[in-house]
């Protein structure tokens, strides 16, 4: 249950949300990303009220949001570029012939230009998370929601992951809301918020 939350995110801002497990951080991310329905109160994303919003608007909201999950959630049966390309399927205006070039360009941007045809089983944990970043950013979203993106990689890979995320977010001009327990990456944030028991404190 979330209560009394007032949160404004500026365009291009990187905000870290920290706090104890079970405090509502992931719930907030899924609400903002229109992956969960708003039951009470009001939630506006990109100026549009999501509570009671119809399916077409929810889809439109999701098209403008990139997700980076705690565990990379790559499909083992797809290559790196094919995994990145899955997020382009939401965008009907992007022709299928553009999927591979766009995915390859983003994989190059995260330092995986030599792994575009590799399957996840051939990638390290850090490389898999880079693929996840590429997948989140390939459609040039306005907002990236990242849930514990460094939790499944070693310390150096974790630092590399957030450095790449920060650089690309700046270049793409998108806002980042990142949930983490990792104190080593707090320096990447423009603002740090603390959440506990469903409230921002």
Structural class by sheet pairing and helices: alpha/beta
Query: How far is the N terminus from the C terminus?
Result: 15 Å
Radius of gyration: 16 Å
Percent strand equals 15-25%
The fourth-level CATH homologous superfamily of one domain is P-loop containing nucleotide triphosphate hydrolases
Strand sequence of the main sheet, in spatial order?
Answer: 4-5-6-1-7-8
Architecture (CATH level 2) name of one domain:
3-Layer(aba) Sandwich
User: Can you tell me the overall shape?
Assistant: globular
Q: Largest beta sheet, briefly?
A: 6 strands, mixed
**Helix content, binned percent:** 25-40%
What is the CATH C level class of one domain, in words? Alpha Beta
Number of strands: 8
Low-pLDDT stretches: none
Order of helices and strands: EHEEHEHHHEHEEE
The CATH topology of one domain is Rossmann fold
Mean pLDDT: 87
* Count of runs of 4 or more consecutive helical residues: 6
Which descriptors apply to this entry?
8 strands; two-stranded antiparallel ribbon; 201 residues; Rossmann fold; alpha/beta
Descriptive overview:
The chain has 201 residues and is α/β, with parallel strands linked by helices. The chain has a domain at 14-73 and 123-200: P-loop containing nucleotide triphosphate hydrolases (Rossmann fold, 3-Layer(aba) Sandwich), CATH 3.40.50. Helix content is 32%, strand content 15%. It has six helices and eight strands, in the order E-H-E-E-H-E-H-H-H-E-H-E-E-E. It has helices spanning 25-32, 55-63, 80-85, 99-109, 125-137, 155-172, and strands at residues 14-18, 44-45, 48-49, 65-68, 143-147, 175-179, 191-196, 199-200. The strands form two sheets. The chain has a six-stranded mixed β-sheet with strand order 4-5-6-1-7-8. The longest helix is centred in the C-terminal third of the chain and has 18 residues, at 155-172. The protein starts with 13 loop residues before the first strand and ends with a strand.
């Amino acid at each position: 249950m979330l209560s009394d939350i007032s949160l404004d995110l500026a365009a291009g801002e990187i905000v870290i949300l920290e706090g104890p497990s079970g405090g509502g951080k992931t719930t907030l991310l899924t609400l903002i990303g229109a992956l969960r329905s708003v039951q009470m109160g009001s939630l506006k994303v990109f100026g549009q009220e999501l509570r009671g919003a119809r399916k077409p608007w929810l889809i439109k909201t999701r098209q403008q949001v990139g997700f980076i999950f705690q565990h990379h959630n790559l499909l083992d049966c797809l290559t790196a570029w094919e995994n990145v390309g899955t997020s382009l399927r939401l965008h009907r205006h992007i022709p299928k012939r553009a999927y591979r070039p766009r995915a390859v360009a983003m994989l190059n941007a995260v330092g995986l230009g030599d792994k575009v045809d590799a399957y996840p089983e051939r990638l390290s944990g850090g490389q898999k998370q880079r693929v996840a970043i590429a997948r989140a950013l390939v459609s040039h979203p306005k907002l990236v929601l990242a849930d514990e993106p460094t939790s499944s990689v070693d310390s150096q890979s974790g630092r590399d992951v957030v450095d790449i995320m920060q650089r690309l977010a700046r270049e793409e001009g998108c806002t980042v809301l990142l949930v983490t327990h990792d104190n080593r990456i707090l320096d990447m944030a423009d603002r740090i918020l603390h959440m506990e028991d469903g409230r921002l404190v």
